[in-house]
Design goal:
The protein is of the alpha+beta class and 342 residues long. It is built from eleven helices and nine strands.
Length: 342
């Protein structure tokens, strides 16, 4: 498999030792792919086996592969240098089982798919299984996938579009110019987003919670931006505003409520500064409140005191601490008068 999308093929299905088979697979992979996509680290289980065959093509920074597993049992640890990738398995025959930690255990049947980010160790079992595996950079998919194992049916319109695109790329990848390969890879990622958005719009509770966490992370990075809103967040996360509100409802908080609470907390932290403490009007402008009055009322509802009263309390605590320190230092520096014997 070359940078121009040349084919990659390896077959280690003959009977033999699992470790030796994986070593042969890794050598074949790295010989044909170079440094672009290092082979994953794999540890066979106690009853482990590693007998698979694979064919693949590279399209810019994505890899499209067809894998047949005669018998594979063990833990996939991802890669050292390229840990931040997303893998999609579309099962075409039998089942593929994935287990991550104690909370994620999925058996994906024929006609189903599973999406995951690489990195956390994942125990896998695939006996007499065939699957299409798509490897993509995580940058455009990170917020939708998180660290979950996301499964769903392949019989959807979004998956039909993705499948048609992948089939076409498998045929023409070697003929694409670099700019064409990049465009094709970008389109692939957009189609995967469509598949994931459909799953999230299905209101699966775990996905809703993952979406809420991704939105909260984005809020925390964009708190000072004036256009921060549910609409902006939904656009950035590639979901509908309705889906975003539903995800926050599962987390028992509104989107606007989380934004307001987070901005007030940043303002409160600003008031802790002993020097160069911003004024109320500066805080209101910095954290995107309409005016000082709105900020003061919101702050009092949140913390039970106005910003001025909160600052006065902090000053009192700091003065008391300074006074105690000065008294202690004074006591330590008092001259010791030795009484002479009369």
């Amino acid at each position: 498999m070359t940078d121009k999308g040349g084919p990659f093929a390896v077959d280690v299905t003959a009977p033999g030792n699992a470790d030796r088979h994986f070593d042969a697979f890794r050598r074949g992979w790295e010989t044909q792919t170079g440094d672009a996509y290092p082979a994953p680290r794999f540890t066979p289980g106690r009853a482990g086996d590693f007998r698979i065959s694979a064919q693949a093509v590279q399209v810019h920074d994505s890899v499209l592969s067809e894998v047949r597993s005669e018998s594979m049992t063990g833990t996939n640890h991802g890669t050292v240098d390229h840990a931040d990738q997303v893998l999609m398995h579309v099962v075409r025959h039998n089942t593929w089982r994935f287990t991550r930690g104690h909370q994620h255990d999925l058996t994906v049947p024929v006609g189903g798919f599973m999406v995951q980010r690489t990195g956390p160790p994942t125990f896998e079992v695939a006996q007499h299984t065939a699957a299409r595996i798509i490897i993509m950079p995580a940058a455009g998919l990170r917020s939708l996938v998180g660290d979950r194992l996301i499964a769903g049916p392949a019989a959807t319109a979004e998956m039909a579009l993705l499948t048609a695109h992948v089939d076409m790329l498998a045929r023409i990848s070697q003929d694409l110019a670099p700019t064409g390969a990049q465009a094709a890879s970008d389109a692939l990622i957009e189609l995967v987003k469509g598949v994931l958005r459909r799953q999230i719009d299905g209101a699966e509770p775990g996905l809703a919670l993952a979406l809420a966490h991704a939105a909260q992370d984005l809020v925390n990075r964009r708190l000072a931006e004036p256009d921060l809103s549910p609409t902006m967040l939904a656009h950035e996360l590639n979901v509908s505003v309705r889906t975003l509100h539903r995800a926050f409802s599962a987390a028992e908080e509104t989107v606007a409520g989380y934004i307001r609470r987070s901005r007030l907390e940043r303002a409160r932290l600003d008031l802790l500064h002993p020097t160069d403490r911003p004024s109320v009007s500066e805080l209101a402008a910095r954290w995107q409140f309409a005016d000082s009055s709105h900020f003061i009322r919101a702050f009092k509802r949140q913390y039970g005191r106005t910003p001025a009263a909160y600052s006065a309390g902090i000053d009192q605590i700091q003065r008391g601490s300074s006074g105690r320190s000065a008294t202690s230092r004074g006591a330590m520096s008092q001259p010791q008068v030795r009484r002479s014997a009369s």
